[in-house]
Amino acid sequence: NNNFLRLHPMSADGEIKCFTQFHNVHCKQGFLYANCEDILRLSELPSDFRYDMEWPIKKFPLNRTGHGIEYHAEMQVYALATSIPVEFILRDENGDPINDVEQERDQLLPETLKFSLELISPVTWETVD
């Protein structure tokens, strides 16, 4: 529901005395605030986040299925468990692939999931090597 007031605390440069919206050609949907030292700041929220939820949300394409995410404070990255579908390979009791299985023309081959654990930078939203 988008009708609720959402509070997203911020700790920029001290206590905020006053706050107002600000919008012009150089600062789209921005805001002005003055801190307790009477310093006026002009700011702008990143446009690729949603702020109408309990937590700010940013979507980015994974091209795979996400199963879980956790922030690793010491490394300052997100650990993300993902999977992609891969062709299922039938193997014999020694682990060797069985290649002589005949496939019907309209037959769908089974798939399985290949899982990965990736570290994602919250700055660039890219995988960390």
From TrEMBL:
Superkingdom of the organism of origin: Eukaryota
Alphabetized InterPro entries for the sequence: WD40/YVTN_repeat-like_dom_sf
Entry protein name: 1287_t:CDS:1
